[in-house]
Amino acid sequence: MDSKNYHEDLSHIRSMMERSSRFISLSGLSGVVAGLAALIGAGYVYFVFKREGIDYFDGARNIFSPALVKELVLIGTVILLTAIFSGYIFTANKSKKKGQKIWDATTKRLLLTFAVPLVTGGIFCLALLFHHLFVWVAPATLIFYGIALVSAERYTLTDIRYLGYCQIILGLLSLFFLGWGLLFWTIGFGVLHIVYGLIMHKKYK
Which spans are transmembrane here (predicted)? Predict the structure, then answer.
């Protein structure tokens, strides 16, 4: 009996330490919604290309007008904001159900660790757009996003690093297939997010 109580106490202590050092209320459903938003956005971009007379799958090098680039940036921004908003809503609801605070010292450390590579990558991509190096944007976003996920793993669910590794590998692979950024972007931000989100929802629901 004493041995059983001893192990239960150790398990309780480990659980308390994990809650105090890691933000564990991330919702898998937020990943699913982010992935669906990315897929819808990618589909919309494809039809925008068709509207502009660009056949994406013919493999030809295409020249994007400044107006088209601005529209693509706007679409990407809307998708990003949708993912952030849905992530906050689902995560806040999960935290509330668990009786946990969504904003504490751990959350601040998580956001800071996540933001450094993400903001750096965002500025890098803006520089690529400024110099009209559009084909490098998709690989850069995947790689920097993956690095941000791996960095954030220290303060949240350890499983998130696997999503980060997949994003980095996909981004590096896309460097050898420049011009197919939309396809790799769809797989990375769309398909991988949905798969990861479903796995996490089933594992931590």
Answer: 23-47, 67-90, 110-130, 136-157, 169-199
